[in-house]
Amino acid sequence: MPNIKSAIKRVKTSEANRLHNVQIKSAMRTAIRSFNSKVDDQDVEGAKAAFLAATTKVDKAANKGLIHKNKAANEKARLSRKLNGLNA
């Protein structure tokens, strides 16, 4: 445990930021899981809505630096392929 006042503050700030980041990443994964379940159920309209929600969450995570922008692009492309396969 740090003794210096600024270091103590950094520990508190880092923990708060970590919890916030975990929350955002968890919401992103949940949105992706929701989309995948809609695709598995062959629910086209639900999948379209879930796709928009999932891509928004992925973009927000990338903008905040929680995931790399290339990973975000790959994730969105994968979701898009699934959605297009469902429509075909």
TrEMBL record:
One of its GO terms (molecular function) is structural constituent of ribosome. Binds directly to 16S ribosomal RNA. Pfam families: Ribosomal_S20p. Keywords: Ribonucleoprotein, Ribosomal protein, RNA-binding, rRNA-binding. GO terms for cellular component: cytosol; small ribosomal subunit. Signal peptide: none annotated. This is Small ribosomal subunit protein bS20. One of its GO terms (biological process) is translation. The keyword rRNA-binding applies. InterPro entries: Ribosomal_bS20, Ribosomal_bS20_sf. Belongs to the bacterial ribosomal protein bS20 family. It comes from the Bacteria. HAMAP family: Ribosomal_bS20.
